[in-house]
Amino acid sequence: MYEFDYHRPGSVDAAAKLVGQADAKILAGGHTLIPTMKQRLAAPKHLVDLHGVRELQGIHLKDGNLVIGAMTTHAHVADSALVKAHLPGLAALAGGIGDPHVRHLGTIGGSIANNDPAADYPSAVLALNATITTNKRAIKADDFFKGMFETALTEGEIITHISFPTGVKSGYAKFPNPASRYALVGVFVAQHGADARVAVTGAGENGVFRATALEAALKGNFTAAALAGKTVSADGLNSDIHADADYRAHLIGVMAKRAVAAAH
Q: Model pTM greater than 0.85?
């Protein structure tokens, strides 16, 4: 690593001032940033550690929404009685991220801000139509994810919490890479009244996306049977050493059916 100044602020306001400095990076879980720094692919002059900001942690209900602080760990989300009661699909997703080490250090806000194309949380945020709140504004999920490793966040903007609507039936299924446990293909489905939202991670060239054809099939008939015979185009999907685009397209259909079954 190169030399840098380490900061551990105690509030969002203090963190925002530090992040506003030239060449500063936020440290949440650190699973992407620290390895990148070790490889000398990134060399921020200031590292702003958010672990001391208590207001960014915790899970509670407010106005019919499940509100999760940005610095809440995957393990906390997975084990939370509130999450299990109101959004069990989200709890199951969190419990399948990485390994125990990753789950006890990684955070939901860090994952969403990084927007890795194979990360799990972006599919849940998009399918559940969540709202991402920062120290400056509230952003709807459909407007937040802009492409691979790209989001609507601007310089100095810090995610404070994510609000998920409750009363939604949801489920998640993924085909994990056996080494990294990132999703080769992950599908999160959510029933919103008569409508449905289906979000796919791990497959798209531009990161997480909504599978509108599958949403149409599930509208008014939120069952795995409704997806029988439905296919997803391989256009715009990744091909790499792990799976080609056609195989990923096939997996999207398979994982979607499993996700709907899990939701029930």
A: yes
